[in-house]
C-alpha cells in the first residue's frame, strides 16, 4: 500500500491507458504472491464454486488474461478476465479512457480491445489454476452473427474458465445491449445452452444499470429458465449523474463513485425480481467495506470492483475483505452467506 502511494503520482502523470498498460506489464513480470488466507467466515459456495472471499476483481482490468494470478495473490477472492472477443480487435481510437479524479470516477469507451480468444486460451492454459478465474466473453464489433460469437466463446474457453460471463451490457459496442431484450436474450441463452457441456463451468450474465421498468423481472425470468447460474449487476452506465470533472461529457460508460447509487438500485431491483432464486453479484462504485456490506445485505452473494482500485491501489481488496470479516463478527453472523439479502 505504502508502495502504491509512492508510485501513484507517477502513474497519474501518465495518460490513463498508458498507466494501465504499464501496471499490467509490471504485474505480469512480478513474482506471484501466495494466495491469502481469508478465514472461514468469508468462504462460501456460489454457483457450485467455493469462493475464499466475496471480493472480486471486475472485468476490464485484465482484458486478455495476463495477470489473473498476480491479482489473486494481491488479495482478490476471484478475478474476472476479459471481455475477450472471438477474433482480435483494436477497439475504439485513443484516447478512450478518462480519469475523472474530482468524481472518483472513470469514463471508458475502450470498445472491447482484445487479443482474441485463441491467444487468451493459450495463455490461460499455462496457469496453475490456483484460485477462481472467470472469463468474460463478448462479440466482435463487425460480427455478422453476435449470438454465434458468444456460443463460440463458451465452447472455446470453457476448459480454462472457472466460470464464464456473458457480457451483453457494454455500452461501447453499438447495439450490444439490445441482447438484453427478451426475444434476443432467449435466442442468445438458448444458443449458449446448446454450446455448454454438461460438466462445463457455470455461466453468469452481466447486465447494465440503465434498464427500464420491468426489465429486471423479464431478465430474471429468462435467465432462470435457461439455467444461467448468476447475474452480475452491473456494468458501467451511459447516464451522467452530476459530475465535476472536465471529462464529464466524454462518450462511454461511467464507473466509480457516481455509479454507486444506480448500481445499488439495480441490484435491489434484481433481488426483488428474483427473491433469492438466483445468486447476484454486486458491482459498481464499491470502494470500501461499508459499500460491500450494503451490497451483500441488498442481496449480492459476491461483489466486484475496478475503478476504486485505480484510485486506491490493489490493497483495497484485502482491506474490504478484512472489514467484512469484522462486520460479520460485530453483527453476530458466523459466515458471509448468512448475511446475503438480510438488508
Ligand atoms: C476501463 C474499464 C474497462 C472495462 N471493461 C469491461 C469489459 O471489458 N467487460 C465488462 O464486462 N466490464 C468492463 N468494465 C466494467 C467493470 O467490470 C464494472 O462493471 C464497472 O466498472 C463498475 O464497477 P466499478 O465502479 O467498481 O469500476 C470496464 C470498466 C472500466 C473502468
Structure description:
By secondary structure, the chain is an alpha/beta fold. It is built from twelve helices and 13 strands. The longest helix has 15 residues, at 260-274. Flavin mononucleotide is lined by residues 58-60, 63, 82-83, 97, 106, 108, 110, 136, 167, 170, 206, 235-236, 255-256, 259, 283-286, 305-308.
Provide a concise account of the structure shown:
The protein contains twelve helices and 13 strands.
Question: How do the strands and helices of this protein lay out in sequence?
Answer:
Elements: H1 2-13, H2 16-29, E1 44-46, E2 49-51, E3 55-57, H3 68-73, E4 78-84, E5 97-100, E6 105-108, H4 117-125, E7 132-137, H5 146-157, E8 163-167, H6 182-195, E9 203-207, H7 215-225, E10 230-233, E11 253-256, H8 260-274, E12 280-283, H9 289-297, E13 300-305, H10 307-312, H11 316-330, H12 336-339
Helix pairs in contact: 5-6, 6-7, 7-8, 9-11
The structure holds flavin mononucleotide.
Flavin mononucleotide is lined by residues 58-60, 63, 82-83, 97, 106, 108, 110, 136, 167, 170, 206, 235-236, 255-256, 259, 283-286, 305-308.
How would you name the oligomeric state of the polypeptide chains in this document?
A: single chain
Radius of gyration: 18 Å
Q: Give the names of the bound compounds.
A: flavin mononucleotide
Instruction: Specify the biggest β-sheet.
Output: 8 strands, parallel, barrel
Q: β content, as a range?
A: 15-25%
Helix/strand/pairing category: alpha/beta
Q: In angstroms, what separates the terminal alpha carbons?
A: 32 Å
- The stretches of 5 or more residues where confidence is low (pLDDT under 50) are none
- As a percent range, the share of helical residues equals 25-40%
Principal-axes geometry comes out as globular
Summed up, the helix count is 12
Averaged pLDDT, please?
Answer: 94
Order of helices and strands: HHEEEHEEEHEHEHEHEEHEHEHHH
